[in-house]
Amino acid sequence: MIEAIEYKKDGARLSFYGKITSDEIMDANTAMINHPDFESFNYQLWIFNPVEDFVLSTNDLQRMAAQDKKASERNPNIKVAIYSSSELVFGLGRMYEAFYGKGPWRIMTFYKLDEAESWIIS
Fold first, then answer.
1. CA geometry: angle at 103 spanning 62 and 44, to 5°?
2. Are 82 and 96 in contact (CB under 8 A)?
3. DSSP conformational letter for 38
4. Which residue from 32, 60, 77, 110 puts its CA 20 to 30 A from 120's CA?
């Protein structure tokens, strides 16, 4: 379930917990991409913790990666940090990285929130 989307002048922090579905992630991603300041964002920090279940298919990941690839045409200067202490979510984050492939966005998945936060401002 989505906990919050916090927009700052240079990015967005999206927090999820419990049972998380692909629809929730797509809705949050679409809202962020359509935010009036999206073109000035430098980062996205996706926080998935604690996770009880993650309802997401390979096709969902491919669809999200394609949506982000298209969004990168409007803003190529984004770092995407994905954080979760869950091995399942970490693995799905790595799959998303692979599906996004070569593109202008820099994407990394983290087990530690402080490392994700440090990376997006580096």
1. 75
2. yes
3. G
4. 60
- Rounded to a whole number, what is the largest CA-CA distance in the chain? 34
Strands across the sheet with 106-110, in order? 2-8, 11-21, 43-55, 79-83, 106-110
Q: Which of 68, 73, 75 is nearest to 11 (CA)?
A: 75
**How far, in Å, are 31, 56, 122 from residue 63 at the CA level?**
16, 11, 28
pLDDT of 43 reads 98
pLDDT tens track for 33-77: 999 999 999 999 999 999 999 999 999 999 999 999 999 999 999
Rounded CA separation 59/81 (Å): 21
Find the radius of gyration of the CA atoms of the chain: 13
The sign of the CA dihedral 75, 79, 85, 91 is positive
C-alpha span between 42 and 60 (Å, rounded): 24
Rounded Cα–Cα distance for residues 96 and 6 (Å): 22
CB atoms under 10 Å from CB of 95, counted, come to: 16
Domains of the chain, earliest start first: 2-121 (3.30.750.24)
